[in-house]
Amino acid sequence: MTEELNTTPQAEQNPTGVADVKPKAAKKKKNKRTVSYGQMHILATFNNTIVSFTDPSGAILTQSSAGACGFRGSKKGTAYAAQIAAEKAGNLARQQYGLSKVDVFVKGIGQGRDTAIRALLNLDINVESITDVTGIAHGGVRPRKARRN
C-alpha cells in the first residue's frame, strides 16, 4: 500500500508551515440615516401593545411590543407593559436615527394608549400631534338567518 498526501488548493503550506489565507475584502461602512421627524404608531389591544416608530413615509425604523419586552400572558395587556415597550422602541429610535419629533397615531382600546404616549415625555421626544385611528364599525356584521318555527 502506498499512502498519498492530499494537499488542498485553498490552503497551501508555505515553508514556515503556516497556511496562506487570503484577506477578505473590506466591507463598506453603512451610512447612518438620520430621521429627526417621524411617526409613532401605537396598537393597543386588550392582550398586547405594539409600538412602532416610522419615518414620515411610513417605513419602520424601530418597533417593540409588550411581549418582546418579556411580559407574558395577561401582563402583556397592562399599562406598565405598554410604557416599557414605548421606552424601549423610543430609545432605539433616538439613539440610532436621532428622532426628536413625532406625530402619534393610536389604534385600539387597550390600557396602554395613554401610558405609551406619556413614556415619550421621559425620553425628550416632542409630540407634535395625537391622532386616533381606531376603526369604527359602520353597518356591523351580517345578521343570522331567520329562525324557523
What's the arrangement of secondary structure elements?
Blueprint lengths: L36 E8 L4 E6 L5 E6 L13 H19 L3 E7 L4 H11 L3 E7 L17
Helix pairs in contact: 1-2
What this model shows, in words?
The chain is an alpha/beta fold and 149 residues long. The protein has a domain of 96 residues: Ribosomal protein S11/S14 (Nucleotidyltransferase, domain 5, 2-Layer Sandwich), CATH 3.30.420.80. The protein is built from 2 helices and 5 strands; from the N terminus they run βββαβαβ. The chain starts with 36 loop residues before the first strand and ends in a 17-residue tail after the last strand. The model has no long low-confidence stretch (mean pLDDT 85).
Outline of the structure:
This protein has a domain at 37-132: Ribosomal protein S11/S14 (Nucleotidyltransferase, domain 5), CATH 3.30.420.80. The longest helix has 19 residues, at 79-97. With 149 residues, it is of the alpha/beta class.
N-to-C series of helices and strands: EEEHEHE
* β-strand number: 5
Using the coordinates above, name the CATH class of the domain at 37-132.
Alpha Beta
In which range does the helix fraction lie?
A: 10-25%
Task: Give Rg in angstroms.
Answer: 27 Å
What would you call the structural class?
alpha/beta
